[in-house]
Each structure stands twice: as structure tokens, then as C-alpha cells.
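Thread title: Can someone regenerate the structure for this chain?

I was given the following input by a collaborator and told the matching C-alpha cells would be attached. They weren't. Posting the sequence so someone can regenerate them.
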Amino acid sequence: MDLEFSNIATGGLFRMILESTALKGAGIMNREKSSINTFVINKTATAQDVTIDEVVYKMPGYSLLPLVANQHFIFEDPLALVAWQFNREFYCIVDHDAEVGCVGFLFYGIHHPLFISLCAADLTDINIIEQLVKEDMQQRDRMQGEMLRTLLKRLIIKSTRMAKVQTNSYNLLTDEKFDIIRQFNLLLEIHFKQEHEVSYYASQLNKSPKTLTNLFHIAGYPSPSSLIHKRIILEAKRYLYYTNKSGKEIGYELGFESPAHFSRFFKLKSGNNLSDFRKIMTL
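Best answer:
Regenerated them for you:
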């Protein structure tokens, strides 16, 4: 069953998917370049496989998983899950980041995928929000969209609070320092195709590259430069998996002026050259 709200004037879309095989993500295969983000909730005790960008993970029972628009995902048993989906026009993560806090960490964080454990009280709270969404989906008035945004925001805040508690590195840092890492994650997702140097992100955060690198070290995270490289390689692999774009086209898409430079970068960071990687994927 799918419950959906849409606003023709703004293009805003919000839906709740219950026990449906429609729960899947096309990622960059979606030619409409959808900005739909997803919360998936496993309210059963049974774990199941989820394949994200061709990598299989185990989604635990009683857990929540945030997924972003450019991820390709398929669940082993979608009929056992509940999902909330929204696009940028309905609720923009960037616009609400400072207001909600930790959104960059929740959707674009270093831990991937981020499985958030749910206790009995968490499940009760989520069930209440779910019931309120079901009720408001039946309303057709000017206040419907705002009410649904309020309920989505409540779910996002609850999820970020749970994620913070369950992240070991959060206890190692002050809120101010953790916020810098969160903002880096969000900036990286927005600019990784154009900006490949730590110096850019450090300047946006009013920090020196060395200070930023030291902060990530204290938190036990990979260095900012390695995270930038990892994000570029992930996107390159998505193009190689799911499109027919040439290496040259992918390189230009990811901000490399020289195809040869991109080819060397991919070989260095992934261990395979572009053509060999694509052949491996077709075996």
C-alpha cells in the first residue's frame, strides 16, 4: 500500500510505502534525476539482506536505514518493511540542516550504511507518527502539506538523536567539533564533483586543512582527503555499474579535465582500470 501527497505547484512529494514490492531505488538509473530520500524501517525481529550499489548488507531486525536519492537499492523482503520517502521540493535537507541538526551526518555521514537500532519505545514512537501520517493523508486542505512536513521532521529529529547516541565517535567530541564533521559531510555531497581538494572544504568551514584533518583523526575517522577520494570513486562505480557512459564522459562528469588523469586516479584508488572494472561487473 502506498500513501502519497503531492503538490503540483511546487513539485513536492511525500509518500509512505507499506508492505509493497515498490520499495526499491533506481539511483542514477532514474533519468528524471529524482531527489527522493528514503527512511526504511524494519519493525520485525527478522534481519534481511539489502543490496546497495551492488554491495549486500544485512539489515538487522528492529532497525532504521536512511538512504539517499543517488543510491541504487533492493531489499530481500520489501513486504516486511515500511518506508517514508520525500523529495527536495517537499523537505530540503540542506535548508533544514541547521534547524534540525545532524542531517548531514544522518544521510551523508561517514558510516555507510547507517543502521540505527530501535528499542521498544522507539518503535512505539514511530508507530504513533505513522498513524498520524495515515490519518493526515486522508485530509485534503491547505494545511495538509505542512502537517505532513511536521511529522516527517519529527521522524528526522528522532532518528538523528538515536544515531548520535549509537555513534561512538560522538562521545569523543564536543557538539561544536562534531558539527564541523557533519557540515563537512554535507558540503562533500554537494560539491564533490567540482571540488577535490581538502583546502576548499576547510575554507568553507573557516578551518585550516591541518586542523580539519586532526579533528577527523581524533574522532577515529578516515582523513578528509581519503573521504573525498572515496566519494568520487563511489560515484564513478555507480556510473560504470548502471550507465553506458564512457570513461571520458564519467571523468568530465566528476570534474576531471583530463580523461587520462581520471583513469589514473580510478586505477590508483580502486585497484582496477576502468575497462577491467566494467568487465568484472558484467561477469
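Residues 19 and 178 are 36 Å apart (CA to CA).
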